[in-house]
């Protein structure tokens, strides 16, 4: 397909109708900018379709703020469940009417010349082409679930699913469960299974942990007050290495609490280091369990110490400081596991996602397939992103930072459209 004089032209196209893309739409609508939001399913569908039944936010409810809409419920320091988040987002969508085209997928985006883009769309009505001046990609940071290559060589009798497919323990066959990954999803799913009485085996990586509450307040409230969620990525302590780390594991379940893997081990959960390989019923691990637990606890205590310094520097009246002391230590670091002998009938892969921008034909990506951007704006004129982790600050990609990021992208788009229209008028 190629564009013709009859090809529909829309000034701005937003690809993805999650909260990030819709936030840009909110601002463009207020500015009177004609645009459309292309969504492969339905707005904010991921919250209802890709979270387990007992999912809760790990950030306090007061973090939840979108353009023209903030959490005003009875529990600002609590943690909304999956269904409460869906209800809250539905309430936001009732406040405006974004121009969304549902059940439509963008299969190709290219820039045939210096003045705009062509998008190939696919829906039940078939394939079509539209053109635009500006494109905002709001498809999420990393949409493709990661499954290790050796997964296909494991015993086919063992059920394997990715964390985004997990909803509750009842969906799994009877028997023990191996969860691979100790990020926020992996540890919370392991806890969900553990609380349901399942025998859980957990292979952990290098994810850090954080206290849920410390010295009278939620840790994330302290960190917000300290400005960590507002610090630009270029100025953040630890630089690029800090931005690549897995988020700290913690939970908002039952009002919020620490996730303490050592305590889980005391209660019968089996812990292992990093899983590296497997075949048939045999899995192999790095001897990293002891070091991983110690490192996670060191980060936990380091964050507490940072909060202590903030309290002291500002003469804040707060309960006395404390530190985490290990309640359990492994006797050894296991290096192998026989799935059959351990009675493991299911594996849940919670090792993350990877980017997939193969449908975008533009020189805007690094060697790892990640967008090269500054506050969401790329060097490709007219191409920008929204909703990426660390797009501008640690708050980017979270409810707390979406409004600010969306406003910046919308301002950039409006400014660019104004300049292009001025150039066009001058040429005429």
UniProtKB/TrEMBL annotation:
Keywords: Oxidoreductase. It comes from the Bacteria. Pfam families: Pyr_redox_3 (PF13738). InterPro entries: Auxin_biosynth/cation_transpt, CHP04046_FMN-dependent, FAD/NAD-bd_sf. GO terms for molecular function: flavin adenine dinucleotide binding; monooxygenase activity. This is Putative oxidoreductase. It comes from Gordonia rhizosphera NBRC 16068.
């Amino acid at each position: 397909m190629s564009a013709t004089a009859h090809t529909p032209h829309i000034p701005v196209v937003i690809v993805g109708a999650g909260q990030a893309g819709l936030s840009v739409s909110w601002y463009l609508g207020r500015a009177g900018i004609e645009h459309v939001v292309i969504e492969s399913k339905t707005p904010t569908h991921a919250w209802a379709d890709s979270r387990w039944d007992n999912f809760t936010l790990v950030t306090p409810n007061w973090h939840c703020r979108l353009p023209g809409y903030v959490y005003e419920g009875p529990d600002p320091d609590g943690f909304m469940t999956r269904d409460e988040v869906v209800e809250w987002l539905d309430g936001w969508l009732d406040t405006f009417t974004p121009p969304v085209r549902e059940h439509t997928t963008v299969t190709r985006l290219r820039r045939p010349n210096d003045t705009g883009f062509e998008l190939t769309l696919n829906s039940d009505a078939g394939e079509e082409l539209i053109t635009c001046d500006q494109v905002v990609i709001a498809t999420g940071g990393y949409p493709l679930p990661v499954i290790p290559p050796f997964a296909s060589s494991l015993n086919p009798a063992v059920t394997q699913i990715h964390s985004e497919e997990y909803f509750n323990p009842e969906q799994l066959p009877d028997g023990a469960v191996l969860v691979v990954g100790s990020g926020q999803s992996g540890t919370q799913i392991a806890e969900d299974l553990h609380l349901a009485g399942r025998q859980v085996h957990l292979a952990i990586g290098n994810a850090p942990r954080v206290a849920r509450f410390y010295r009278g307040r939620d840790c994330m409230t302290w960190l917000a007050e300290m400005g960590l969620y507002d610090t630009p990525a270029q100025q953040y302590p630890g630089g690029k290495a800090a931005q690549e780390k897995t988020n700290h594991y913690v939970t908002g379940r039952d009002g919020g609490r620490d996730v303490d893997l050592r305590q889980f081990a005391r209660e019968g959960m089996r812990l292992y280091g990093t899983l590296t390989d497997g075949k048939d019923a045999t899995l192999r691990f790095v001897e990293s369990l002891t070091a991983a637990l110690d490192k996670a606890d060191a980060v936990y205590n380091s964050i507490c110490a940072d909060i202590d310094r903030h309290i002291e520097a500002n003469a804040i009246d707060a309960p006395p400081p404390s530190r985490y002391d290990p309640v359990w230590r492994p006797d050894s670091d296991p290096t192998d596991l026989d799935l059959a002998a351990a009675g493991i009938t299911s594996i849940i892969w919670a090792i993350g996602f990877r980017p997939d921008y193969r449908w975008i034909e533009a020189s805007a990506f690094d060697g790892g397939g990640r967008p090269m951007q500054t506050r969401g704006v790329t060097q490709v004129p007219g191409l920008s992103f929204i909703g990426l982790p660390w797009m501008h600050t640690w708050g980017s990609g979270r409810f707390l930072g979406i409004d600010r990021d969306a406003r910046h992208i919308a301002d950039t788009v409006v400014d660019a459209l104004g300049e292009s229209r001025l150039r066009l008028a001058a040429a005429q």
